[in-house]
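Now for one record:
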Amino acid sequence: MRNRCSVLTDLFLSFAKVGCFTFGGGYSMISVITDTCVEKKKWISHDEMMNVTVIAESTPGPIAINCATYVGYKLAGMAGAVVATLGIVVPSFVIIYLISNFLDNFLAYPLVAKAFLGIKVGVGILILDAGLTMLRKMQKKPQPRIIAVCGFVAMLLINIFSLKISSIALMLVAGAVSLGLFLAKGAPEAKGGGTK
């Protein structure tokens, strides 16, 4: 019982730290969540983190919350999922609540406005770090790399020419291409000693 309580406490505090000190939304949080859950705590592997990121991105809800829920569930079942989710949500909720109640025109303060200019740069670096980490951990096969490069070029062109194409549409196209190539090659043989 004590061990379970310590796991739940560790989950809450770890994700509360992520929630307190990460700005810029889910994509910038991926790098920090990876550092906490994969590098420091060893709760999940890099491959699991990549899978969690893809699933969290393609399911409803913020990506960071979905990641926290998955990790919490893996470690301590439903209680772990609830605790990890609360850990990542509560700090942000409290900070926004305090700002909205006690500081009118928060960004009008010159000091705060200057600080947020630096934070924008930091958020960009965190998102870039998350993307590069995922690319490094990707399977060393041509298909995923070609799809990643094509997706990057498509996204770049969409931004340059201000086209109204959603990133969700790009994800669906990438998934369809990958599935089409998988089916074209024929499903691999069943693993685990299937009989011929």
Notes: The chain is about 80% helix and 0% strand. The CA atoms of residues 152 and 170 lie 10 Å apart. The two ends are 48 Å apart (CA to CA).
